[in-house]
Structure formats: structure tokens, C-alpha cells
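User: quick one, fold this
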Amino acid sequence: MSSRIGERWARGAWAALLACGVAGCAPTQTISLALEPTPVEVYVDGRRLAGGAPESVELRADRSHIVMIKRQGYRSQQVALRSTRTEDGYRLLPGRVNVALRPATGRGRSVEIELDDEGAGAEPGAADASSEER
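Assistant:
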């Protein structure tokens, strides 16, 4: 009976090695995310992640990534995660992303300006002088 278990294990191990060889087993790393305010839109390498503000994301460690954080009415912010080769394999740095979005100021607001034709063509200060005489 133990030989059957050993055979199954060996077949499973070979299947896993074959799958890694064909599909490419890439090392992954979990990156912690601390994002404010919530909810936000999170993009990794241009692809939007589901959910409003995930606490972490698992990414391939053998390549660098760009994390973009967006929320309407706030300035978007992006963080570059750099892949670094170590003795133990690959590692993404930084391993934790902390982003506090700041409100966008001066964006999307309009200013109304009214021009008064009174005094048009007069020399600068002429209107002020006449109003002082009264």
C-alpha cells in the first residue's frame, strides 16, 4: 500500500514540475498595502484590482511593478516596486506600500468673472479720481 502512495506522490511531483516548466513558476511575494482614504481604486501594472482597498496583493517577485492608487477628488499616487535578486531568490522592494492621498486643489472648480464696461477706455485711475471728488 505504501508503494501506491509513493507512486501517486511521484506522479504528482512530476506533474507539478512539468506544469512549472511549461507555464513558468515565478516566485511571488505578498505586498502589504496601507491606503487612506478608502475606498480607492488600485491598479497594478495598469490592471485594476477588485475591491475598494485591499490589505495586501500577491505579485511576481521576479519582475518590477507599478502600483497606482486613485480616488476621485484626490491626487493619484504611484509607487514603483523594484525586483531585486538576493541569495534566496527575488524580492520586491519596498515590501509595504503606505499611501495617504491628498485632496486635489484647484482641479474641477470654476471661477466666474464679471467685467464691468463702465469706465471702459478711461485711463487707469481715472474712475478712482472721479469717485473721490464726490
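User: anything notable?
Assistant: The longest strand covers residues 77-86.
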